[in-house]
Amino acid sequence: DGGITQSPKYLFRKEGQNVTLSCEQNLNHDAMYWYRQDPGQGLRLIYYSQIVNDFQKGDIAEGYSVSREKKESFPLTVTSAQKNPTAFYLCASSTRDRRSSGANVLTFGAGSRLTVL
Amino acid sequence: EDKVVQSPLSLVVHEGDTVTLNCSYEVTNFRSLLWYKQEKKAPTFLFMLTSSGIEKKSGRLSSILDKKELFSILNITATQTGDSAVYLCAAPRMNRDDKIIFGKGTRLHILP
Known about the structure:
The structure holds two protein chains of two kinds. Helix content of chain A is 0%, strand content 48%. Chain A is mainly β. In chain A, 37% of the residues are buried. The model of chain A has no long low-confidence stretch (mean pLDDT 90). Chain B has strands spanning 3-7, 10-14, 19-26, 33-38, 44-49, 56-58, 61-66, 71-76, 85-92, 100-102, 106-111. In chain B, a hairpin with a 7-residue loop joins strand 9 and strand 10. Classes of the chains: A mainly beta, B mainly beta. Chain A binds chain B through residues 31, 33, 35, 40-45, 48, 50, 56, 58, 90, 94, 96, 98, 101, 103-111, and chain B through 6, 9, 31-32, 34, 36, 41-45, 48, 88, 90, 92, 94, 97-100, 102-105.
C-alpha cells in the first residue's frame, strides 16, 4: 500500500541535542512538507520541497534543517538552536501535477512526537 | 498576507445535533479549498472544493464554497461521538511555491 512513513513515533531528547525525524513516501509525489503542530496552533509550515535537491523555508524554519537527496525521503533535523522543540511533527506529500484531481491534496504521515527534557 | 481563518476555534455539542464550521480565506491565486479531519494523529482528507455553490457530500458531512465572499462551510448533521476531532481548513497558494496555508482548526467535541 502506498503511503508516508514517519519515524520514530515518539522521541525523547535532552536539551542541546540535535535530533533527526525520518519521513519516507512511496506515492511518487514530487512535493513534501514538514509541519509542526502545537495545541491550539493548527499546522505551521517548517520546510517544504517541490523537487529533489531543492527546498524552501516555511513560516517557522529557524532551528530546523532538511535535505531532499531522494524523491522518497525528506528528513527533518531539529537542531539545538530551536528554542522550543517539544511538539508534534507531521510530514506530508502531494503531487504537483495540476492536471491531477489530487494536486495539492496532502497525504500525511502518522506524526512524530518529540519531547525535549 | 495570505491567511485562512476558521471559526469557532472550539465547539461542544450533544450527540444528534447539527454543526456548522466556518472557514474564510485570503489566498493569492486561489484555486481550491481543502477540509481535513484530525482525530489523534494524521489528518485525513475530507473534501476539496474548487467551484462556487456546488455542495460536496459524504454521508452526514457536506461542504460548500463561496468564491465571491471567500468562505466555505462544513456541515455535520446528526453528529456522533466519532465526529469528535479537529477539523482543518486549508488553501494552496497557486503560484511558483504552491505553499498550502492552513487555518488553526476547529476542535469539535460531541457529548454522548
